[in-house]
Fold:
Amino acid sequence: MNILKVNGIELAYDSYGSETDEAILLIAGLGTQMIRWTIPFCEMLAARGYRVIRFDNRDTGLSTHFSHHDTLDFETLARTLMSGQLPNIPYTLEDMSDDTIELLDALGIAKAHIVGRSMGGMIAQLVASRYPARVLSLTSIMSTTGNPELPQTSPEVMALMTRPAPNPREDEAGYIAHSVAFARRIAGTGYPFEENEYRSMIREEVQRAYDPGSIGRQIAAIAVSGDRRPQLAKIDVPTLVIHGAEDSMFVPACGEDTAQAITGSEYMLLEGMGHDLPTQLFETVVDGIVRTARSSVKDSI
Structure:
């Protein structure tokens, strides 16, 4: 595990593969840590001839947390946004995209292939649109555009995601059960739900860092980011949009909208996949990322 000071904060990261190979940077989703990009997945990508870097976003894992800020109340956040005002939040998705570029700077990487999942997909989209000279290709997985006309996440799923969880320091079993129940709800039905693996990962996340307020701060950053389609229209690198046909967090229309907003992008709809990345689909997803990355080389010739 490594720590670098970037953009006024500290980011924790690790990497796989040779430092002389082209870099693939993996950006994690809402409230989750870099270990959601599992070691087998990273090693599978690295075996294709890439340096694979994963990191903890700000406010997660071993990176800098913003727990000194007040915990955000979702009803207050919604009322503020509906009134046309911007809430006072500690950071935005643009700040998180800046973190990504400054991490590349600190590592001495001029250009990289950017891959993001869920909220990480939103950050990856902003990186590609705001820093075109730094991005070789883009893969946006299970993400969305911020288009207000798209179907919204169901109130039932939002309630499951935002309901208070037991404190794992006092009731680890209850916290893990709470987290596994949500993971099961948003998973697809096409592949076995790997409960033991989820339990182990959630336990590892708690051991690395526990900050119950971080997910609210990141939801606020998403909420104020607005409609990103004008920025997506600027992206001109090879782009792959991957989405699960059974995604209940961001329904497939969200993936379709992302692909439509980025000229020339490829859309990959995966049957049986929800808002998760089953191990059975690792090879399919890796194949897509690598195919997109290699097309950037062809485009430069």
The CA atoms of residues 138 and 239 lie 5 Å apart.
